[in-house]
């Protein structure tokens, strides 16, 4: 079985697909799940999402485990035999490994209640979990508990980090478009340039609390010498430990932009919004008890993880816990072109989920 899971992981790794375009990945997963005789198989969930239900037939809680289907628009430079066969695309967050771990549980029926395996689309853009929740078909899955793991380079291989409370940050991308009026470079005073406002924006963002705003992109004017610019665009990512904190950052930046736009037309759009993931104390305790029972070492980790995870969206529906599984202290970082999921994590990841399931449904 372990060998099959590694082969599945490598097959997924070879054919990465972007968020929202995971049709081939979903087809592969659906085929593999059919062979495990689920009591219910839901496809097309929130896009290309797939869920399999294994029902004990006895009353009891529904326990959901989640993996992600999507890969990244980053070339795979791992150099491994199973490297991406799609130029410019790579499974560089390890979602291929998370899928293999979940597939290892397929066919398992809990002693009571139900187990749901959710293969969620579009995690990397923050759209997938919300789309799954908004899909009427999610109604038949409705978990009481939901668990997800993310592999974590920098932590010792196979060690587990979990805590109640904030597990990953809330974030949102802002596209700020400024429109004034172009002019001849010899007569800039006859136009309206966004340059002074952009300069103030850069200083303002740098003055905010550490790590709460990242200026990701700026573009102004044309690459010429005869034109004073009339337009600019900035991409800013805002980040906070809580959803309320993020809402305050957004309100403050909106007010600042309105005050500082002068005569420029201001157009702000929001992208890639992620809720904070807040681990439920009972769910987190189940994860830590499983780690303890299995004799898996605890990893030191400064919670919450600064990058966002859209798993937090499920906490409105279920007692949730997201935990981290060490990918090795020297392993390339997530989203690094050299990253490849360590196959050695498939067994401990699966064991953790099985133990959590046994504790809740046993
Ligand atoms: Zn990622
Ligand atoms: Zn990821």
From TrEMBL:
Q: What is this protein called?
A: Amidohydrolase
Molecular function, one GO term: carboxypeptidase activity
User: What organism is the protein native to?
Assistant: Roseibaca calidilacus
Q: Which cofactors go with this protein?
A: Mn(2+)
- Gene3D superfamilies, A to Z: 3.30.70.360, Zn peptidases
Alphabetical UniProt keywords:
Carboxypeptidase, Hydrolase, Manganese, Metal-binding, Protease
Positions contributing to Mn(2+) binding:
93, 95, 124, 150, 335
**InterPro entries found in the cross-reference section:** Amidohydrolase (IPR017439), Bact_exopeptidase_dim_dom (IPR036264), Peptidase_M20 (IPR002933), Peptidase_M20_dimer (IPR011650)
Please share the entry's free-text remark on the cofactor: The Mn(2+) ion enhances activity.
> Domain Peptidase M20 dimerisation spans what residues?
171-261
Source organism's superkingdom? Bacteria
